[in-house]
Amino acid sequence: RKGTFVVWVDDHVQIVKHYMSGWFCIDLVTVLPFDSIAMMTMPETTVSESGKLRALKVLRGLRLIKLFRVVRIRRILTRWQ
Fold first, then answer.
1. Alpha-carbon span 60 to 24, nearest angstrom
2. pLDDT at 13
3. Of 6, 23, 29, 50, which one is least surrounded by beta carbons within 10 A?
4. Are the C-beta atoms of residues 36 and 66 closer than 8 Å to each other?
């Protein structure tokens, strides 16, 4: 693309701040066994089956986003090699 450039950052504090403000929440949610925790902590009477299914679909969507990100990073790394 025209006008794009890469800035190499080696300051650990800046890297952590950027990660924490970006992908950290998605990464955290996708690695937690959220579906198991939710099923154990929610009483059967308060959450309908459709509500549980919807929550699981959202979680799977977040995991899919993370998978696309990993594939994209792999593609970038193979170009550099």
1. 17
2. 95
3. 6
4. no
Residue where the block lists tokens 């924490």: 20
Q: What is the largest CA-CA distance in the chain?
A: 57
**What's the CA dihedral at 69, 28, 64, 37 to 10 degrees?**
170
What is 23-80 written as a DSSP string? THHHHHHHHS-HHHHHHHHS-TTTS-HHHHHHHHHHHHHHHHHHHHHHHHHHHHHHHH
Q: Which residues of the chain have pLDDT under 50?
A: none
How many CA atoms within 13 Å lie on the side-chain side of 27?
A: 8
Residue 70 CA to residue 52 CA, distance in Å, equals 27
CA dihedral of 31, 37, 39, 40, whole degrees rounded to 10 = 160
Q: Kindly report the pTM of this predicted structure.
A: 0.44
